[in-house]
Design brief:
534 residues, alpha+beta, four-stranded antiparallel beta sheet, transport, ABC transporter substrate-binding protein, signal
Length: 534
Amino acid sequence: MNRKTLVLPAVIGLLVPVLAACGGTDSGSDNGDAIVVGTTDAFTASKDAPAPLDPAFAYDVGTWNILRQTVQTLMIQPRGEGEPVPEAAESCGFTDSGNERYACTLRKDLKFASGDPVTASDVKYSIDRARALKADSGVFALLSTIDTVETQGDNEVIFHLKTADATFPFKLSTPVAGIVDPDIYAKNKLRDGFELDGSGPYTLKAEVDDDKLVSAVFTKNPNYQGSLKVNNDKVELRNFKDADEMGSALDKGDIDLMTRTMSPEQIQKLSADSDDKVDLVDMSGLEIRYLAFNTNAPTVKSKAVRQAMAQVIDRGELVSKVYGSQAEPLYSLVPASITGHSNSFFNKYGDPDVDKAKSMMERAGVTTPVKLTLHYTTDHYGSATEKEFELLKKQLNDSGLFEVDIKGTPWATFRPAEQKGAYDVYGMGWFPDFPDADNYLAPFLDKDNFLGSPYANSAIRSDLIPESRRVADRLSASGSLTEMQDIVANDVPVLPLWQGKQFVAANDAVTGTAYVLNSSSTLQLWELGRGVSG
């Protein structure tokens, strides 16, 4: 086993410019065979979610990782982190001192994979479409600061914002801002199924069985014009039911690389393995896990119940017994490596203390034990999730203050049920849309939030979120960001648990593995190639 640790520059907000790799579609691989990448992400088209790959609907790390290979955005997060750089655009920037007018000029000769030209009107159409459709995934909220989109000629797009938003360049790098062809994507309807067209580095051919995507073959797009250097001709993303099946495929040589989601036991075994034919690459990650609450539900409507859970749960034990060195306790929605992070939950609750939790509930007149069901998804965040929730159940029940049961549900059923408010308490993960503290706060706390949560705090929505977005220097926004985190720790509409690392295991003949995932868990298949491992 060759173990490699990738150390990337610290994420310090919007002020760190990093140049993207230049180039078009030059391939670094002479091998025509597809590089095969394994994943346990499940992709299902269902009655509740018939259009999983429409940029106006998709809003999870798995579907976004398919979209990022095929649908181009004006901006893109660079290879080494930092400020977004132009992708479909030749240049972009704020044109006023108040960060309320943002203009982009498109690259010359930009084309869809079909060969049709990409124009400014296509960009406007795509973004206006996502905003108007308001898909129930909540992804349109990323574009909520846009007032109007204007075009000037075929190559210039101007965004007029409702309020200052220093994070807007990041939002233009997310798939909801992806450019689609108006001749293919209807204005008033999502595109059902697994067909996908764009102007990104690859085209997609999907293999579907029983409304499930089992394989996605990405072939280099000869018409691609952008900032990325594509180091291969073809990559196949192949789905597996669990990490063990995926690991067996790597052992047998059926796949070249495996990524999401490897089990803690698997990573531990690979770390100790002396086999020098497989490289294990570990890198920093910004994934978080948390419990979310339907704050209108009778069982958890009392803030004291939610606070007591925050006081009882032992994050240190949870991490050490389930995830080991692959995660660390988290005491805020904002990870420790992000500018603006504050340990608000630890500052308020300190170490786990059953007596303090009991006093909270007694003062609020809450009758104990409180009966709860903790819901989790069985197939979206990895095989360790069940063990995690078993331990959460034990911690809460051992306090004597709760009578907890747990229930696991496949993601295709879990997510729609959660959005409809069917669960009082449920476990979720978050992979950031972009590496900024705003993206760990606004998606959970703003209007039209990702969770569909009934929780609303007027100070956060009316004052603190807009205030933080006005500041281009993200360190200077720490005051507003900290205040939001302190409010969350007091009201507990969500309860952060841990943040994790990310890992890739690959045949040592595959190159580019150090950059195949960025800190936001964005899959960058164009980085992969075949050659001699360094």
